[in-house]
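Quarterly update from the structural biology core.
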Amino acid sequence: MRNEKFSYFIRIIAGAYLFYLAVQLVQGIAKGNMTGGSMILGICASILFFGAGAYFVLASIRGLLRMMRGDNEQKIEDEAVMEEVLEEKESAEDAAEEEKAEAESGAVEEAETAGEETAAAEKTVPAESDAGETEADAAGETDVDESVKEK
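Predicted structure, tokenized:
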């Protein structure tokens, strides 16, 4: 695993060295050690070194500060995100269970309704046998009493 604190310290040292080089270039230009084209190149290099040095130093200090105070904040943020994910997962599972229960209850109600319709149709229309008698007559389950038929 890479140690981030160490890499931030190395960047701070590199930024400070770039600052040092930029200052040396400016001092060389001020003393007149550079003339003509080398002076223009020295000015451009010193500006580049100042910018890069400032970036390395400031970004590294900022990163170190974030890391020092951000570890706790990051952990809290990670925990909050995990809680949200768990809540979403639980709500999705609950919704799926409710849909499944509704689908099952709908199927049961359909079956009951179909069964009631079939039973109602059987009660209203008695089936006739080949001899022309209804099933109830064949089984001897008529409403008319046998004694009434004899009279």
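The radius of gyration is 47 Å.
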